[in-house]
Please model this.
Amino acid sequence: MPTVLLTGAAGYIGSHTWLALQSAGFEVVGLDDFSNSSARVLDRLKELGGRTPVFERASVTDAAALDGVFSRHRIDAVVHFAAFKAVGESTAQPLSYYANNVGGLVSTCEAMRRHGVKTMVFSSSATVYGEPKYLPYDEVHPLAAMNVYGRTKLFGEQILRDLEASDPAWKVAWLRYFNPVGAHESGRIGEDPRGTPNNLMPYVTQVAVGRREFLQVFGGDYDTPDGTGVRDYLHVMDLAEGHVAALRHLLEQRASATVNLGTGSGTSVLQLVAAFERASGRPIPYRIVERRPGDLPAFWADATLARELLGWQARRDLAAMCADSWRWQSRNPTGYD
Ligand code: WQD
Model:
C-alpha cells in the first residue's frame, strides 16, 4: 500500500487522519514540530494503532530536514496539515502566519518535487469563501478571504493551482473543511488547544469539565432561527475518512479535485450547547455577549460533490460529535499534558 507523509501529523485533524489512514491500509509517516501540538499524541497513536508510529520531528519550513525525510522514506503522497489556524492571532502576527502557512507549503512542495512526489492533499477551509453570495457554499462559490489566516489558505490554494498548471503531473485535492469537532471514539485523542480555546466546542468541553466558568455566546441577534451563529459542524473522524477517500481518488483516478467536507446542514450555537448538555449530562452555563468581530452569521456546505466524486459523506450526527468530544475531555481534563 502507498506511503503517505502527514505534515502537522500530531495535531487535532492530523492525528485522527493518521488512524483513519492506517485503518485503511496505508503506511504513514508523521511529521510535526510540536509548535502547536503535544508529543504525547504519539504514545496514544501507538496504543490505538498497535504499532510504533513512524515519526519525524521537523518544521515544514526546514528544507534540509524535509530532504532528510524524503531520503529516509519512500513517500507516495503528502497530506499537508501543518499550519497555524487561529484567526485572531493571524491578524496580530501576519508574518509568522505567512512564513509558516505559505512558506511552509512552498518548501514542502519544493522538497516533493526534488524527490519526485507530485500528489498532495491540501488542508483548506470554508473560510476561503468569504461573505456568502448564496448558501449552501458549493465549490464554485466565489473566493474571498476575510482575515490573514483565511488569506494563507486562499494563497495556498492558488499556489497549488499554479503548480498544477505548470506541471500536470501534479495531482492535488483541495479539501475545504467546515467546522471539525468531536474525537476518536476511544477518548484517547482529541482537540487540545493551547491557552483559551478560540473555537466553540473545546470551550464548551472546558466549561463542562470545570476549567471554565461559563460560555460566552458571541451574539444573540443574528438573522438565524435562535439569533446565534450557525455552522456546519463535522465529526473529525468523518473528516479523517474524507482524506482517505480523497487520497484514493488521487492515486486511483489520477485526477485533481476541489471538495467541500461538511455535513450539508447547519447548527446554531445554542443548538450545539443543548445537544452537548444532553450528551454529557453536564449543564453549560452561558451568557450572550457582543458579536465577535469578523464572524459570519451563518454558513454550511453543499456536500454533494464529495458524495458524487469521492463516494464520501458524513455519517456521524451531532449527538455523536458531542458524546465523543465529552468522552475525550472528561477522560483528559487537562488535555495531553
Ligand atoms: C463557531 C460559532 C462563533 C466560540 C473558525 C475558522 C475556521 C476554522 C474553524 C481553522 C460561531 C461561536 C465560538 C465561543 C461562541 N479554523 N462561538 N463562543 O469561527 O466558524 O471558524 O474555526 O481551520 O477556518 O474561521 O468557528 O468554533 O470559532 O465559532 O459563541 O467561545 O461559535 O461566534 O458562531 P468559526 P468557531
